[in-house]
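Anyone have tokens for EF-hand domain-containing protein? Sequence:
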Amino acid sequence: MASLKDNYKERHLFNFYKSWDLDGDGWLTAEDFMSNAETLAVLQRHGKWEEDVVARWRSYLGGWWDILLAEATPSSPDFSNKGSSDRRSGAVSFEDWARFLKKVSILADSYRELPDFLKAYGNLLFVRMDYNKDGLICVKDYRIYVAKNNMDIMRSNDCYAFMLSSTDLRNDSILSRQRFDELFYEYWTSHHPACRGQYILGPYENMSL
Ligand SMILES: [Ca+2]
Ligand SMILES: [Ca+2]
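Reply: yep, here.
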């Protein structure tokens, strides 16, 4: 089922547009992050809008946005001026995002060394995915997560099975938090076409532009 070509770009394109660029204009902005914060706040309160909860999430994701903008835009010393003519200030393109992730893959050797906002995102993902709150991820948790996020439910069993190592199989096909972190780290950093972590954020579709 896994494609043997480099699926790195495909999964990151899917994630960029589906999870972050909420207005679909091809740029990540503070407004996208605020929309995301509001969605998460309402989800946390089971569909209710509560101003203090929304404010808390806005502040939280605002912090993520500040880190991303500082790290990913060409004004930082790591970037050349190439492509600066079509830049939007205060916005992050997919190319910026990809460069940021390349830097992450060079600098981080494990989950613990990922940038703080990606680790915060990992924590949030784990909490949201662990539907029955037992501190573990099983295929049922994963299926519910995939369904709730309008991803391809028909592929969820296969994608989950793909992520399991022989040790996970011996552990009743259940992912510990440590294994989740390993898969999450692989998702962001591995270019290996068969990297198990490619589905930890859910099944993705081909979005090659
Ligand atoms: Ca946008
Ligand atoms: Ca669970």
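The pocket of calcium ion (ligand 1) is lined by residues 21, 23, 25, 27-29, 32 (CB under 6 Å).
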